[in-house]
Amino acid sequence: MNEKLQTLRKKAMQLPLTPGVYLMKNRQGEIIYVGKAKALKNRVSQYFGSQNNHGIKVLKMVENVDDFDVILTDSEFEALILECSLIKQHSPKYNILLKDDKGYSYVKITNEKWRNVYAVLQREDDGAEYLGPYTSSFAVKNTVDEAKKIFRLPQCNKTFPRDCGKGRPCLNYFISQCCAPCSGKVPFEQYDEAVNDAIAFIKGGYTHAIADLEKRMNEAAENLEFEKAARLRDRIAAIKRLGGKQKVISASVKEQDVFSLVLGSAASGKACLSVIRFADGRLYDSENFIIDTPENISEALSQLIRRFYMIRDFIPKRVSVEQEIADEELITRWLSEKKGKNVIISHSTTNEQKKLFDMCRSNAAQHLAPVTGTTGRKAAALDELASLLGLGSAPEVIESYDISHTAGSDNVAGMIVFRNGEPYKKAYKRFIIKGFDGQDDYASMAEVLDRRFTRYEEEKDSGEGFGKLPDLILLDGGKGQVSAVEPVLKKHNLLIPLFGMVKDGNHRTRAIALSGGEIALSSKRKAFTLVSEIQEEVHRFAVSYHRSRRKATSLSSTLTDIPGVGPTRAKALLKHFKTITAIRNASIEQLCEVEGISEKTALIIYNALKSDD
Question: Can you give the pLDDT at residue 408?
Answer without folding.
Answer: 57
